[in-house]
Amino acid sequence: MGAGQTHSRKESDVLGTLFPLIFLVPLAAMVIGTVTFFVLFLRKVRREARAFGYPSMGAYLRAAPGSDREKQAATDLALKGLVVCLLGLIMPPLLVIGLFPFFYGARKVAYASMGLGLVDDPRR
Predict the structure, then answer these.
(1) DSSP helix/strand/coil, 89
(2) DSSP 3-state assignment of 24?
(3) How confident is the model at residue 10 (pLDDT cuts 50, 70, 90)?
(4) CA 48 to CA 36: how far, in whole Å?
(5) b vs e for 23-42, b when ≥16 Cβ sit within 10 Å of the residue's Cβ?
(6) 66-90: pLDDT as tens digits
(7) Which string of DSSP letters, residue by residue, matches 28-54?
């Protein structure tokens, strides 16, 4: 061994085998958590769409909010999306997922602030 080396071969082998686990386990947890969050989000939006009487989730996301309850749900959707985007600064996959609720919620809030959706939408 050289004068500057203090690591034994056994220590480097242990570090070499544990090193991938240090990165793979948190990465796998982040991916699983992101997919779980996305599935739960889709279930919640689908449930809200049915509760408001829309035939599909897409129709609900495209429509302007007509009632105060729908306006409140749109604002909640936008704020939750914003929070998830901010969490995406810590865990990057959440940034992409947070953009969807933020966009659709903010769009519905903008429609409501313009006065759209005050009359029943005939496309529902």
Answers:
(1) coil
(2) helix
(3) low
(4) 19
(5) eeeeeeeeeeebeebbeebe
(6) 888 998 988 988 988 888 888 888 8
(7) HHHHHHHHHHHHHHHHHHHHHHHHTT-
Token code pair at residue 12: 């480097």
Calculate helix-pair angle for 92-113, 68-87, nearest 10 degrees.
Answer: 150
> How far apart are the C-alpha atoms of 21 and 19, rounded to whole Å?
5
The two counts, helices (H) then strands (E), for the chain are: 4, 0
What crossing angle do the helices spanning 9-51 and 68-87 adopt, rounded to 10°?
170
B/e letters for 84-93, b = 16+ CB within 10 Å, e = fewer, are bbeebeebeb
Q: What is the pLDDT of residue 117?
A: 66
CA distance 85 to 51: 26
Two tokens, residue 92: 């990057």
Task: Check: CB of residue 74 under 8 Å from CB of residue 108.
Answer: yes
